[in-house]
Amino acid sequence: MAKPKVKTLQEKLAGQIPKLREEKAEILAKHGDQKISDVSITQAYGGMRGVKAMICDTSVVEPDQGLIIRGKPLLKLKNKLPEEIFWLLVTGKLPSKDELALFQKQLKEHHEVPNYVWKILKAFPKTAHPMAMLSAAILAMRNESVFYKRYATGMKKTDYWQAVVEDSLILLGSIHSIAAGIYRMKYKKGDIIPPSKKLDWGANYAMMLGLPKSEEIFEMMRLYLVFHSDHEGGNVSANTCHTVGSALSGPFYSVSAGLNGLAGPLHGLANQECLKWILETMDKFGGAPTEKQIEEYAWETLNGGKVIPGYGHAVLRVTDPRFVGFNQFGRKYLKDDPVFKTVDRVFKVVPKVLTEHGKAKNPWPNVDAGSGALLYHYGITEFEYYTVLFSVSRAMGMLAQLIINRALGTPITRPKSVSTEWIKTQIK
Ligand code: CMX
Questions:
Q1: Cα 310 to ligand 1 centroid, rounded to whole Å
Q2: Least packed by Cβ within 10 Å: which of 129, 201, 332, 409?
């Protein structure tokens, strides 16, 4: 019997989307008026924390469990390839071996970066932050957008998702090449290294950065890219990307906007801040500090009115499984590394300090507390660059969410704001 034809991501989705649309229509028709959230004045003033007012099917973050991608707890996915995770985020299922191979081939067709993008990047001042460079490069890539070309010729609303998939392949296919190019350019590492047709997405990124070609480093990079891929829909970068996308601004504008949010120190930039904090403690105490010294420095940070980067979370109330996964990797491969040892010791001390301090609702480490030690160990010592690595991965979640939203015809985002006067009237 002839083997069935292997489906592309587009073909797979084309089979799934009618059912998803029906399901949404049925839920709305039968239960549209049912309340799922109340909003208090504290929430309106407080970053809408906990308000349930959007749908995201790619992943959920449970306060007591952390990230669950399509029903699978993150740590169960730690040995998967990032490409498999993207497929899972979009379709809800892991790809078969053949589907994966075909998808990897599709991505590789977009590995090359247009020359004008390199020219733009070269024009940046030496002091530019690599996140500003990455965001600008993605924005410039709007020029490649299939979504815009098709929109200009009168694409049907029900076909938007197809063009978003095309743009996602272009963006995901080239973002690691761009990010690696930024690294080599900005930190004077030598010529830009072209992508290899033989390596998977994560290994290719590590290779293009110029890291030694070792399976251990490839494994670290894949793990990094899997762990940062998505974190449901309400976080700053996902929510920004979602809102910009809802205006039909297209994937390049939307992801670039999301990345600008990721570049904030309370969000993705915390990984840069975190390693800086770790290295500062090591500097201050002349090597891996003792637990007592870490405690002293943690209090100094808090008493100086600053946050301890890498700790706390808006949703999580336990140790982030992403931190756990990185920590397991560290214990396996770099347990004697002084930076890793310090991260490990900080984990023993800071939750106690934050609990005693009494402000943070969650004293436990988040993803950013542990990732930097791994990167540092393998030679990426420019911690200013760490959020770019986060971005390459998070582009997967943002794009997966955009595809689903366009497939389901999610309308333009437009919550209602109210004035202080209005609040005062309500209080009366
Ligand atoms: N160190 C010191 N104080 C902290 C703290 C930390 N790590 N985490 C929270 N707090 C403080 C808050 O600043 C806030 O203080 P004020 O009342 O004076 O404003 C108070 O505790 C209550 O905050 P919260 O409700 O526990 O936390 P939020 O939901 O407001 O904010 C987060 C969440 C992540 C921004 C915050 O915990 C923080 O600033 N952490 C450090 C930065 C960080 O690691 N960010 C990365 C998060 C993961 C990611 O998005 O990449």
A1: 9
A2: 332
- Please give the pLDDT value at position 384: 94
Average pLDDT over residues 93-118: 97
Cα–chain-centroid distance for residue 425? 41
Protein residue closest via CA to atom 49 of ligand 1? 267
Average pLDDT of span 264-288: 92
* pTM over 0.90, yes/no: yes
List pocket residues of ligand 1, CB cut-off 6 Å: 49, 235, 266-268, 270, 302, 307-314, 359-362, 366-368
Q: Give the helix ranges, DSSP H, for 247-337.
A: 250-262, 270-285, 291-303, 321-333
Q: Give me the CATH topology for the region 270-377.
A: Cytochrome p450-Terp; domain 2 (1.10.230)
Distance 348 CA to ligand 1 centre (A): 19
Residue 263 has which token pair? 């570049």
State yes or no: is 267 an active-site residue. yes
| Secondary-structure breakdown of the chain: helix, strand, coil percentages, each rounded to the nearest 5 | 60, 5, 35
Domain extents in the chain = 84-266+384-408, 270-377
| pLDDT for residue 4 | 83
Mean pLDDT computed over 297-320 = 96
The fold adopted by the segment(s) 84-266+384-408 is Citrate Synthase; domain 1 (1.10.580)
Compute the distance from residue 309 Cα to the ligand 1 centre, in Å.
Answer: 8
Residue ID of nearest Cα to ligand 1 atom 21: 360
Minimal CA–CA distance to 199: which of 184, 214, 179, 178?
Answer: 214
SS3 59: strand
Residue 1 has pLDDT above 90, yes or no: no
Nearest-CA neighbor of 268 among 327, 305, 309?
309
From the candidates 176, 231, 313, 377, which is the catalytic residue?
A: 313
pLDDT of residue 94: 98
| 308-320: average pLDDT | 95
Catalytic residue among 110, 176, 231, 267: 267
Residue 99 CA to residue 103 CA, distance in Å, equals 6
At 266, give phi and psi (nearest 5°): -85, -10
**How confident is the model over 293-319, as a mean pLDDT?**
96
* Active-site residue, 313 included: yes
